[in-house]
Automatic annotation (TrEMBL):
Residues 4-139 form the Nudix hydrolase domain. It comes from Paractinoplanes rhizophilus. The keyword Secreted does not apply. Keywords: Hydrolase. This is NUDIX domain-containing protein. Transmembrane segments: none annotated. InterPro entries: NUDIX_hydrolase-like_dom_sf, NUDIX_hydrolase_CS, NUDIX_hydrolase_dom. It holds the Pfam family NUDIX. PROSITE patterns: NUDIX, NUDIX_BOX. Coiled coil: none annotated. Its cofactor is Mg(2+).
Length: 151
């Protein structure tokens, strides 16, 4: 008998401002280094998705979110090139510096820099999971597959 599959649940932040989205350049993590990524992370044991996205936003880019702000915009079932899969819940928040504070690279040991990019013109080295989240958000798709064979 095989064990049931486990799929980590990620929360991903689409912080938007004037048709731009904030991305972080991974560095020093040993995984997807040199690729642009949404501020994101895995839910911790016993943590709900809203608490998780608030925590990740603060840990990675130093901003404060109110629990009423994050709006879930899509779910992504992603499979990486090693065949491991995960489920991502992507939340959008319209950036307001007066409420959120200015974003900054709060994890320089994992991130080279953060930068705003047009949502319709992501860098070529954007991690596929992130690109799928942004595409689904822009196209108002409530669910998208990423890294799976097309049907």
């Amino acid at each position: 008998m095989t064990a049931p599959p486990t799929h980590p649940v990620d929360v991903l932040l689409l912080l938007t401002h004037a048709n731009h989205v904030l991305l972080a350049l991974r560095e020093g993590t040993g995984y997807a280094d040199g690729q642009w990524n949404l501020p994101s992370g895995k839910l911790e044991h016993g943590e709900d998705a809203i608490s998780g996205i608030i925590r990740e936003a603060h840990e990675e880019i130093g901003i404060r979110l109110d629990p009423t702000e994050p709006r879930m915009v899509t779910a992504v079932h992603h499979r990486n090139t090693a065949g491991l899969s995960r489920v991502g819940l992507a939340f959008a928040v319209a950036f307001d510096p007066a409420c959120h504070g200015e974003p900054f690279n709060a994890e320089p040991h994992k991130c080279a820099k953060i930068e705003w990019f047009p949502a319709d013109l992501l860098p070529s080295n954007t991690y596929p999971y992130t690109a799928a989240c942004v595409r689904a958000y822009r196209e108002s798709q409530p669910f998208i597959l990423s890294g799976w064979a097309t049907h």
